[in-house]
Amino acid sequence: MDYSPAFLKIRAIGLGLISFLSLLAIILFCIQIFAQWDTTVSSERYMIILMLLTHTVTVIMLPILPWLDAIRFLFLLVVHISTDTTFTYWFPRYACPANATQREQCRLFNIYILVLSWVVTAHVIIYVIGLSVFVYRTRASADKPSRVNLIDEEVMDIGRDSTPSMSESRPQSSDVAAGGASSVVLEYDVSWWNSDVNPNHGGDITGGVPSDVFEHPRYGSEKVVPHSGPIVVFATTKDICTGCAPPEVYPIHDA
């Protein structure tokens, strides 16, 4: 999957913010462990150490390549929600010093830790949602061809269908007309032409029969065969009038 510069820039900002908040949480956990180690019980110490490890792992895992975002953030999301929920449940029972001043400082410090931990978790959730939306939109746009591509393909198909091959663009020799020139017949529907006289051969293109031999400006002397009906017979694709719609080229017949 290709990543746009905008996505990489947003990703860098989001991961930088999560890393910064996790570093602040790590500092608070270290201060709490240092200041309140003697006043806390074993279960509370383990809880603080577990949350400290969670935020440390978060900072370490974030710089990994973008294609690992889904697995990495799924793991971090489960770990953060689990530890934050446990600390929130344990918060009212958290043991603080008996001194009133120290007890208030302890509770206020624990509130800071609780709020900061949930802020980090909220940013992880927002990033996961944004990543999911980006992946969904990218895959949807990749699976659905754009309208421009469809139009281009249709134009190419029409061009292949309407453009004569190289063998049809230049008359093939079947026999020799006057002056040793090639003699072939290409049939065109007269409805493609107007009633003007084609200056290349001087014949009437409204249904009449052109001259048997005319001088083509590129191919020299060419012979045409008399023909009746709505189809007018000419020798080359050069015989259509200037400005008219291109005629449909029928199979080449010998003169």
| Helical proportion, percent range | 40-55%
Number of helical stretches of at least 4 residues: 6
Sequence of secondary-structure elements? HHHHHHEEEEEE
Largest sheet: 4 strands, antiparallel
**Which descriptor suits the 3D outline?**
elongated
User: How big is the Rg?
Assistant: 42 Å
Strand residue content: 5-15%
Distance between the ends: 61 Å
Mean pLDDT: 67
Number of strands: 6
Low-confidence stretches: 161-216, 222-255
Query: What number of domains?
Result: 2
Quaternary structure? single chain
Helix and strand composition category: alpha+beta
Keywords: Membrane, Transmembrane, Transmembrane helix
Transmembrane segments: 12-34, 46-66, 73-91, 111-136
Provide a descriptive summary of the structure in words.
With 255 residues, the chain is α+β, with helices and mostly antiparallel strands. The chain has 2 domains: 139 residues, no CATH class; 83 residues, no CATH class. It has 6 helices and 6 strands; from the N terminus they run ααααααββββββ. The strands form 2 sheets. Strands 1, 2, 5 and 6 form a 4-stranded antiparallel β-sheet that branches. A two-stranded antiparallel sheet has the order 3-4. A hairpin with a 3-residue loop joins strand 3 and strand 4. Helix 3 packs antiparallel against helix 4. The longest helix is centred in the middle third of the chain and has 44 residues. The protein is elongated. The C terminus is likely disordered.
